[in-house]
UniProtKB/TrEMBL annotation:
Protein name: Cytidylate kinase
Catalytic EC class: transferase
Ligand binding (ATP): 9-17
Signal peptide: none
SUPFAM superfamilies, per database record: Glycerol-3-phosphate (1)-acyltransferase, P-loop containing nucleoside triphosphate hydrolases
Cellular component GO terms held in the UniProt record: cytoplasm
Phospholipid/glycerol acyltransferase domain: residues covered: 292-405
Location of the protein in the cell: Cytoplasm
Organism domain of life: Bacteria
Keyword Lipoprotein carried by entry: no
Length: 454
């Protein structure tokens, strides 16, 4: 179960703008339930359904599929495969949504979808009934308001920017009509939950509103008192959330080094083709830039080289510290090939910092989540370290599957498969809380396993 923040209030109070900003700041998923109601209305309007004919509206619900997708940080609303993100924002659809959202069957239809999203992710969800009906146990509930005039003024500005000729009076009338519809419907009317914090934004500008909401959230997520026994509930502090700092992709490995590395790579690829019966698959999945994690099953000491040969930017990888203690020339060699030491079995936390530093410096990082080589070729369960590094750095993880029969020897048939990159935030792992790490680790191990067995 993720952390859930419920944000309710009337139209134009600032819910979606603020929720988006908070989601970006806290690396949460933003769920715009209004967009879902708008999509239902959009389908009805587009298909000529009479909005006073409740029976017909209900009968059409089974034809609707709604998805919220996240591309380049923006939320897109997909209705039956079509991106309707812009289409649902017209005054006509606003008014239609206000009408169709009063129908209990429409609400029940969207309720399941909303609850599922809340279960799977850390989310901030905005709407009218989130704190009262959809997420009655939300960790934080906020009721956002502003005077009808202030809200109408904001909407008018928005509409004017889009070239819409509506007047202030018309917009105010629409807002008041929708407020009336939303607060007077029988099912899940707009009202403040008893345990919600009310924030009035009438005299606050946007930044002040965002700051106030962040303050309320931090206060609520900090330490929560259990009303029944006065004990402090299991603390879910935002401290952990703050540690997530997506690495900056502005650091690049020296281009000359990349060029020399490229020439060497191709020379080594040639040698490897002579020595092994080797093939690389899925090379189109390898990002052209650095700062990515390659997570692979571990079969042999050659694995870092196998993985590196199709990555354009050099790789760093962890190697057991004993390798750095013996022969100085060997230490020099492996260090220059990107290895850095890790103390095994001691929960070496410095290695996490070093890994992040490597990624930040623009290098790629190879990790073998199983920790040790597999003798029989079976993929083990994997440790959480890979997920922790990926979650803290919020960077792509490219799963890799390495297969060969028995022991690696001259002319062994080797296949190295690169899978599609995993983006932590897209699979609900936008934090370092235990649920995010579990989700991420499981996904990485699943992908590696299926690449090995393809
Ligand atoms: N506190 C505020 N002060 C000024 N403008 C605001 C404020 N909050 C929101 N806005 C602006 O008002 C408009 C409506 O806000 P929006 O987030 O769409 O409201 P809601 O989701 O509650 O309907 C947006 O253009 C937004 O930039
Ligand atoms: N949880 C929700 C969310 C929206 N609705 C209704 C109320 C509104 O009339 C429509 C559209 O909501 P939306 O939040 O997009 O509207 P505004 O952006 O506030 O104008 O859906 C609802 O009934 N319950």
């Amino acid at each position: 179960m993720g952390i859930n923040i419920a944000l309710d209030g009337p139209s134009g109070a600032g819910k979606s703008t603020i929720a988006k900003a908070v989601a970006a700041k806290m690396q949460y998923v933003y769920v715009d339930t209004g967009a879902m109601y708008r999509s239902v209305a959009c389908y009805m309007v587009t298909n000529g359904v009479d909005l006073d004919n409740t029976e017909e509206i209900i009968s059409k619900l089974s034809e609707i599929s709604i998805k919220l997708e996240y591309k380049d940080g923006a939320q897109h609303v997909i209705l039956n495969g079509e991106d309707v993100s812009d289409k649902i924002r017209t005054p006509e659809i606003s008014m239609a949504a206000s009408k169709t959202s009063a129908i209990p069957e429409v609400r029940a239809f969207l309720f399941d979808l909303q609850q599922t999203m809340a279960k799977e992710n850390n989310i901030i969800m905005d709407g009218r009934d989130i704190g009262t009906v959809v997420l009655p146990n939300a960790d934080v509930k906020i009721f956002l308001t502003a005077s009808a005039e202030a809200r109408a003024q904001r909407r008018l500005k928005e509409l004017q920017e889009k070239g819409d000729p509506s007047t202030f009076e018309e917009v105010l009338r629409d807002i008041e009509q929708r407020d009336y519809n939303d607060t007077h419907r029988e099912t899940a009317p707009l009202k403040k939950a008893d345990d919600a914090v009310e924030v009035d934004t009438t005299s606050l500008d946007l930044q002040q509103s965002i700051d106030e909401i962040c303050r309320v959230i931090n206060e609520k997520l900090g330490v929560k008192k259990n009303d029944d026994d006065g004990a402090v509930k299991k603390e879910r502090t935002p401290r952990v959330l703050m540690e997530v700092q997506p690495i900056s992709k502005t650091h690049h490995v020296n281009p000359l080094k990349v060029l020399v590395y490229g020439i060497l790579r191709w020379a080594v690829i040639g040698i490897y083709h002579l020595y092994y019966d080797i093939r690389w698959e899925g090379t189109e999945n390898v990002p052209k830039d650095g700062g990515n994690i390659f997570a692979s099953n571990h079969r042999s000491y050659q694995d870092p080289v196998f993985i590196a040969l199709h990555a354009r930017v050099p790789l760093s990888y962890m190697a057991k510290e004993e390798l750095f203690q013996g022969n100085k020339a060997f230490k020099w060699l492996i260090s220059n090939l990107g290895a850095f030491p890790v103390t095994r079995g001691k929960g070496d936390t410095a290695v996490i910092d070093t890994s992040i530093e490597k990624l930040e410096s623009g290098r790629n990082l190879a990790i073998f989540p199983e920790g040790t080589r597999s003798k029989d070729g079976k993929v083990g369960k994997g440790k959480t370290g890979v997920a922790l590094i990926a979650a803290v750095a919020q960077t792509k993880v490219i799963p890799v599957g390495i297969t060969f029969e028995g022991k690696l020897k001259f002319r062994s048939k080797v296949i190295v498969r690169y899978g599609e990159p995993i983006v932590p935030a897209e699979i609900g792992a936008s934090n370092t809380d235990s649920k995010s790490l579990r989700v991420l680790k499981n996904k990485v191990m699943e992908e590696i396993t299926s690449l090995v067995h393809e």
